[in-house]
Amino acid sequence: MFFQIRKIVKQEKIEVIIINHILPVGYVCWLIKKFLGIPYIVISHGTDVLYGSRNTWKVNMMRKVVEKSEQIIFNSVSLRYRFLIVLPEFESKSSVMYPCPDPDFLEEPPKEKIDKLRSQLALEGKRVLLSVGRLDEGKGFPHIIRTLPKLLKRDPHVVWVIIGDGPKKQEILNMIQKKSLQNVVRYIGEVPYEDLKIYYYLADLFVLLTHPDEGREEGLGMVFLEAAAAGLPVVAGKSGGVEEAVLHTKTGIVVDVFQEARQIESIIFDLLSNHIFALQLGKNAKERIRQDFQWPKQLKKLEPWIGDVK
C-alpha cells in the first residue's frame, strides 16, 4: 500500500490525503508524510477506533498516526467521545462531520412506480415495516422477528420488508421460517443503490433495532438518514451515534433493545395507528435532512485543509 500511494502521490501531485481508517491505512500515510511531507486528514467511522483500542501496541500506533495528522474527523459525537476516552490528549484536534444521504432521497418517486412495486410485492392494504441493513450481529433482526407475532395479533395487516445481506442471512431466514412468518416477510436481498429509494417511499415505518454487540456500536447509521430524507418515521435501537441520526420523539423513536424489549411491539403499533404523529415525525425528519445533512454544509469543515468546496 505504501508504494502504491507513493506512486499516486507523485504522479497526480497530491497535496493532501484523506483517509477513512486510522489503522492500518493511517500508518501508511504517516510514512508518506515522513518521507514526502504530504499532510493527511483522518476520517473515522467506528470500527477502526474499536480495533485500534484493543491492546497497548495498537493504541500507541493510533496515537502516532493521529499526532502527525492535520485533523481527525468523526462521523458522530458519540464516536468522538469513545475515541477521546482512549486518547484524550487529541480533543483539540478532533471534530465531527456528519455523512449525508444522497439528495435524491428527498424527492419522491413517481406514484405509478411505487404502486407497481407495491403490487409486485402484494402489499395492497398492508402496513409496511422496512428494514435496510447488513444481516449481522448488532442490527437487531432477531428482535424484530420475536416482536412480529405479537404485533400481528394486534394488526394482522403488517408486512415486513427486509433489504440487505450478510453473514447472518441464513440464520435470520431460518428464524422467520421457525416462527411461520414467511407470508408476512418480503426478503428482497441486496438492492442496487440507485433502486433503493423507492422502498423507503413504499413503507409506512422504518425499523432497525440496532444495539451494542461485544463493544461494537453504530458510528451513526446512514440508513436512518436515508429514511429521514424520505420522510419516513423511524424506530431505532439505541447504539452509539444512532441518537444523533434519530432524534427521540422528534424524528423517530429510539429504544433500548434490551431494557425496553417489552415495549417495542406497542411502540411500533402506536406509530402505525397514530398517523398524525407518525406523519409529523417523518416531516420533521425530512426537514432536518434539508437543514443539516447536506454535503455543502458539512464539507465546509474541511475547507481549512482542502479549500472552498462547491
Annotation, overall tally of beta strands? 10
**Helix share of residues?**
40-55%
The stretches of 5 or more residues where confidence is low (pLDDT under 50) are none
Identify the overall geometry. elongated
Biggest pleated-sheet summary: 6 strands, parallel
CATH fold naming of the largest domain: Rossmann fold
What is the second-level CATH architecture of the largest domain? 3-Layer(aba) Sandwich
The run of helices and strands is HEHEHHEHEHEHEHEHEHEHEHHHH
Mean pLDDT: 94
Rg, nearest Å: 21 Å
Across the major sheet, the strand order is 7-6-5-8-9-10
Level-1 CATH class name of the largest domain: Alpha Beta
**Could you state the CATH homologous superfamily of the largest domain?**
Glycogen Phosphorylase B
Strand content: 5-15%
Q: For the terminal residues, how far apart are their CA atoms? A: 31 Å
Notable features of this structure?
Rossmann fold; four-stranded parallel sheet; 310 residues; 2 domains; alpha/beta; elongated; six-stranded parallel sheet
Give an overview in words:
The structure is a single chain. The chain is an alpha/beta fold. It has two domains: 2-100 and 295-306, Rossmann fold (3-Layer(aba) Sandwich); 103-292, Glycogen Phosphorylase B (Rossmann fold), CATH 3.40.50.2000. 45% of the residues lie in helices and 14% in strands. The chain is built from 15 helices and ten strands. It has helices at 2-12, 25-36, 47-51, 56-68, 77-86, 111-120, 141-154, 169-178, 197-202, 222-229, 242-245, 264-273, 275-292, 295-299, 303-306, and strands at 17-19, 40-44, 71-74, 94-96, 127-132, 158-163, 185-189, 205-208, 234-237, 252-255. Strands 7-6-5-8-9-10 form a six-stranded parallel beta sheet, with helices on both faces. It starts with a helix and ends with a helix. The model has no long low-confidence stretch (mean pLDDT 94).
